[in-house]
Amino acid sequence: MHQKEFLDNVDYGKNDWWRYVVTILASWVGPLILIIMVLIPLFIFPNHFKQVIMAPDSFENLNSMFLLVFFGIYYILSFILFCFCTRFIHRKKLILFVNTFNKVKWLKILKGAGLWFGILGLAMLIELIIDPSLVEFSLNPSFFILLILSLVIYSIQASFEEIFFRGYLIQGIGIITRKPVIPLLITSALFAVGHFFNGSDVFSGLGIVLNMFMFGLTLGIITLAENGLETAIGVHIANNIFVTIMINNTSVFENLPSLFTAGADSSLIIPSLILMPLLIFFVFRKNWDKLKILSKKRYVSNEISESNQLLCLKCETINPSFANFCKECGTNIKAKYASTSSKTLAFIIDLIFLLFLFGILLILIISLNIINPGMSVELLAIIWVLLDILVFFLYFMFLDMKWQTIGKIFMKIRVVNELDYQPITYQQSFIRSVLLLLDLIPYPLPGGLAIIFSAKSPKKQRIGDMAAGTLVVEK
Question: Which of 195, 204, 395, 454 is deepest in the core (most CB within 10 A)?
Answer without folding.
Answer: 454
